[in-house]
Structure formats: structure tokens, C-alpha cells
Amino acid sequence: MDIFLQKIAQILEVDSINADDDLKSFSQWDSLAVLSVIAMLDADYGVNLRATDLQQAQSASALWSIVQTRKAA
Amino acid sequence: MNFTFRNKRISGMLAVVPARELKFLDEMKNFNAPEGRSRKLMETMGYDRRRLVEDGVCVSDLAVFGLQQLFDRGLLKKDEIDALILVTQTPDHLLPPTTNIIQGRLGLGKDVLCLDISQGCAGFVVGLIEAFMLLEQEEVRKVVLINSDVLSRKASPKDRNIYPLIGDAAAITILERDPKPSVIHATVKMDGARNETLIIPAGGMRLPCTPETAQLVDVGDNNLRAKDHLYMDGSGVFNFVQTEVPGVIEEVLKRSGTPIESVDYFLCHQPNRFMLQKLADKMKVPHSKMPNNVVERFGNSSGATVPIAIMINLAEKARGSGFLACLSGFGVGLTWSSMLTRVEQLAFCEMIDFA
């Protein structure tokens, strides 16, 4: 999950993020960031999420659990 | 649906782009978003310069301008055209068909079949399929396919999701019989259940334009858009391309028995650089085989981007001994398409400015 957090931090253009940080609290969390996360999840984790799926995730760790659930499915 | 065509070919291509060029850096101030994020958008998506029509310029204006050039330069004769196909989402009028307007303005013969097709970013392959089907008719010698849109006129200048990527253009492609034996495979797939992924809600019979539909609404992320404007679910389109397009390309490769390495170029619709790089990565195709530089120079001009990608990257080869091309489009409908064909010995393959 550390690598995952790093990837999210990179997209948000910050040095690091915590697992329970609210993604929407970052000013860089816009449609471009959402698309970048979707692309990253597709390329690196083989998971296809929609923007609405991402909006449901309050925090990075919540997003991580969605990714795990989808990967298992 | 799968298609196989024998002894047909593309024999020439001309694109018409408006002379008016807008630069993304100059446009950034029009968006309510922080400048840093607009810069990030520019770097990621590959936005730089694009071509837009002046107010009031229509698809038929671009098409007539291009065809007249071909007549004047002796590259095409009026009396050898048996059919005119126009693929557009931005016709001059709800009716009559824009092809009839073009026919009338150019004084083409009454035996010319005029067909408008409502398709967009997947429309180059869809148009080629229609043209090749017409060429199965004995009496049809040459078909003129026009892919043209002036979508900048239907995009909200205050919508950072769509406005900076749109370009206007017309691509004219000439199709005829191939004197030597050749086979072309194509596949088109559609999913109308996702028809709202790309939509202009108002302006048809379901929701006619009114002062209300022209009202700009804050749709989030500091973007303003009206129901008269083009809407695109950006991440929905991204997912659609990543999940569906590789399959439709594999389909034509499989049916023709062509290993992916044997394809010289993958000439795909050009939504932005980002999406094409991700598509190439997903298909394990080197970026050099899948050009992605149309948007940064001309913008996304819907069905005209595949011809433009050929013109700006491969014109000399296309006029010479040629290459094996996998063409692919994807967009409104939703529609996704692919075609495996050689592109060679074109009589012309160039772009001109509309002025």
C-alpha cells in the first residue's frame, strides 16, 4: 500500500500522503487527477474504475480497499 | 460487425484546416481554474496549438473549399465522382443533408449519390466501410468520403474538460478499385446503452434550443457549460477506450492472420496524447508506431484525425511504396472501429489552410 500511496501523492503533486487523508481536501484533486488515478489503476493494478467509484472513496485507504475488492473479483 | 473487402483502395487524401490558430497558453486565462493545474493539463494531455473556424464557418464551406482545390489542380474530376459521403455531427442544417448542399454548390451531376452519416471520432473507418460497400456496385468508380466537424462551435469556451482539445477540420478521402488484388478487413462495434457518454443534449427534437438551454451552468471543477454544448464524460471515455479498443484491433489482426509486429503503424483517432500513450502501452505497441501528435498541433477534429495523423507523419511514405496500417476510431455512439489496410501510392496526401 506504501507504493500505492506514493503513486497517489505523485498525482496530487505532494511529497507524501497519509492513508486516511481526505482526497477531496487536496486542491489538486480535480478531473485531471481523477483521470490520472483511473489510468494508473488500469495500468498498474489492472482495475478499471469509474470517476463515480472514485468519488465514493473518502480517503486513499478507502480507495485501496475498492481496488483490492475489484482485483479479487 | 465484421467486413471484408477485396480490390479496393484509398487513392488520395486531402485535409482542410482553418487558418485560425489558438494557443493553449493564451487560452488558459479563459478558464476559472488555477494556472498550475491548467499547465499540468497541457503537459499531460499534450495541448498546445489548435485550429478553429471563424464564426459562421460550416462543414460544407470546408468541404467545398477542399474539393474545389482538387478540381482546380486536376487531382479529381467532377464527372468521375459517383458518390459523396459525409460523416459529421455538425451538419449545416437539420435538413437538407449537407452532402446535397455540397453537391449543389459544386455543380456535381444528378447521378451522384449523396449520403450524410451521423458519426464522429470512429467515423473514418465507418465512412470507409460505406464507401467500399458502394464500390461493390459496377457503376461506381470513385467515392468521395468527407469527415468533417466544426465542433468548436458547440463547445463551451468556459469548459476546461472539452474546449481546449477541440479542433475543426475536414478530411477528404478518395476511394476506388484497386487494380491489383488486395484484401481489407474491418470491424465496427457499437454500444448505444452508453450513448450519453458523449452528447449535445439540446438542439434536436428531444430538447430544442431555447434561451434556457443556452444558459451556462456551473458543472463543477470551475467549468461552465450549457445544454446547447458538447458534453463528454472524460473518464468514461478513457475507460471505454482502454477496455474496448484493444479488442477491436486484435479482431482485425486475428481475422487477417497478421501478427501485431507486422503492422507498420497504428493510426488511431486522436483524443489527446495521454490516452494514446496509455492505449499503446496496453497493447504493448511502441509509441513510435502509434503517432499521438495531432492534438498538440491541430486539436481533436473528430473523424478527420486519422487522415491528419497520416498526413503529418507519413505523407511521403503514403505517396510512395506505403505501409501496412491498422486504422482505429472510437467515440460517439459509443462506437469503436478498426481496419487493416495498406496505404500506398496515394496520388496526394496533404493539408491545406482554409482561408
Short synopsis of the structure:
The complex is a heterodimer of chains A (73) and B (355). With 73 residues, chain A is an all-alpha fold. Chain A contains four helices and no strands.
Q: Assembly type of the shown chains? A: heterodimer
Please provide the count of β strands of chain A.
0
| Tally of individual helices of chain A | 4
- How does the helix and strand content of chain A classify structurally? mainly alpha
Mean pLDDT across residues of chain A: 89
Return the CATH topology of chain B.
Answer: Peroxisomal Thiolase, Chain A, domain 1
Please count the helical segments of chain B: 9
- The CATH architecture term of chain B is 3-Layer(aba) Sandwich
* Silhouette of chain A: globular
Helix content of chain A: 55-70%
Instruction: Please outline the major beta sheet of chain B.
Output: 6 strands, mixed
